[in-house]
Design brief:
- The chain is α+β, with helices and mostly antiparallel strands.
- It has 3 domains: 131 residues, Dipeptide-binding Protein, domain 3, CATH 3.10.105.10; 95 residues, 3-Layer(aba) Sandwich (D-Maltodextrin-Binding Protein, domain 2), CATH 3.40.190; 133 residues, Dipeptide-binding Protein, Domain 1 (Dipeptide-binding Protein, domain 1, Alpha-Beta Complex).
- 25% of the residues lie in helices and 26% in strands.
- The chain has 11 helices and 15 strands.
- The strands form 4 sheets. A 7-stranded mixed beta sheet has the order 9-10-11-2-12-1-13, sandwiched between helices.
- α7 runs antiparallel to α9 and α8 crosses α10.
- The protein is globular.
């Protein structure tokens, strides 16, 4: 098994949600759709969003040049078509005509260039900046054509333009985007009250026929899953997003509640920092993988609602590395031999930082702690508030 600079014990999951039936609402449209989420949005600037709650907001208010379908194929969004040179270093995107930002101005190629110039600027501190390092330059031959010139060939360039942070912004309102968001998406930003809710309203001028279906969408911020489920059952919510796998079996039996589980590329994992001890030694990384078979972790953490993987690429994807063989059973003795070869005679102590309020992460931490101990790993779980989690990691 080849272990890269950052290895992961990854668990691609089924993303589950529950909802109360809304007779006729989804067919006829209209109304207010209320979704419960677990945490505050820390950023309204799409270039700086990082969490699932923020990604949901991104796709409600903004569009990208391309978007990814449920089957992980890429299709046009704001770019109606594209073509590329034989050397894969020049990519031309033809933009849809007549698409307007929420403040009324038509989107043009200059907006696209301004958006990516900003992402590429280190001062913006966008977490996806390195995804576009291959961009050497951009130009607009006309208002509805954007040409990207790359430093090296990249066959998946149209795919990465579907990134949730790579949403097209109006060049004349970029400076205010963090407090007064404006996009081209199906909903218009109305308000955000941390600890309470984010509200968006129907974009009456939206370019995509038949969308959006609702007059308004609310993301209700309710950290406790028990509170979310109680609110759903009381009729105060229409859906609970990111349902914990421990709740799926319970709610499948409930009357008047529909549970939907969709296999996706969503994944979670314990990420090893391979630049610092102990995981800068590949023998220690191999020892950990021997100690903790991923299939056992999936069963313990996700109650079988997922599958083991070696990367964020899910096993259902054609690019998944099927030649990599994962350990199927714990081998504590083999792990201890590798640790001894690496010079570790006593327990290998590893800190593991876990965000509070994420039951799956907390269950993952405890599972790894218990499973790795017989092999000689002592995992020190450090629980931190979610707002500090990214900085701590």
């Amino acid at each position: 098994m080849t272990l890269t600079r950052r290895a992961a014990l990854a668990l691609p999951a089924l993303v589950s949600s529950v909802s109360l039936p809304r007779p006729g609402a989804t067919q006829a449209g209209g109304g207010n759709f209320r979704i419960a989420v677990s945490a505050n949005l820390r950023a309204l600037d799409p270039a700086k969003t990082t969490t699932g709650e923020e990604y949901m907001y991104d796709v409600l208010v903004f569009n990208g040049l391309t978007r990814m379908r449920e089957d992980l194929t890429v299709e046009p969004e704001l770019a109606e078509s594209w073509e590329f040179a034989e050397d894969l270093k020049t990519w031309s995107f033809r933009l849809r005509r007549g698409v307007r930002f929420h403040h009324g101005r038509e989107m043009t190629a200059d907006d696209v260039i301004a958006t990516f110039t900003r992402i590429l600027d280190p001062a913006t501190a966008s977490p996806v900046r390195t995804n576009y390092d291959m961009v050497a330059g951009m130009e607009a031959p006309d208002p509805h054509t954007v040409v990207f010139r790359l430093k090296y060939p990249y066959g998946g360039f149209a795919d990465i333009l579907s990134d949730r942070q790579a949403k097209i912004l109006p060049r004349d309102r970029i400076e205010d985007i963090a407090t007064a968001p404006i996009g081209t998406g199906p909903f218009v930003f109305r308000s955000y009250a941390p600890g309470d809710r984010l509200v968006v309203a129907r974009n009456a001028e939206y370019w995509e026929a038949g969308q959006p279906r609702f007059d308004q969408v609310e993301l209700r911020i309710l950290p406790e899953m028990a509170v979310r489920i109680a609110a759903l059952q009381a009729g105060d919510l229409d859906a609970v997003w990111d349902l914990g796998p421990e709740n799926v079996r319970q709610l499948r039996e409930a009357r008047d509640i529909r549970v939907e589980s969709v296999a996706t590329a969503s994944w979670d994992g314990a990420i090893m920092n391979n630049r610092i001890p102990p995981f800068n030694d590949p023998r220690v990384r191999r020892a950990f993988h021997l100690a903790v078979p991923k299939a056992d972790v999936v069963e313990a953490v996700l109650f079988g609602q997922g599958a083991p993987t070696i990367s964020p690429i899910p096993p259902t994807h054609p690019f998944y590395a099927r030649d990599v063989v994962l350990p199927t059973r714990p081998d504590a003795a083999g792990a201890r031999r590798l640790l001894a070869e690496a010079g570790h005679r006593g327990p290998v102590r590893v800190p593991l930082v876990i965000p509070v309020g994420r039951p799956l992460r907390e269950r993952l931490g405890v599972t790894l702690q218990q499973m790795a101990r017989p092999a000689g790993f002592e995992i020190d779980i450090q629980r931190v508030p979610f707002g500090r989690y990214a900085a701590a990691v």
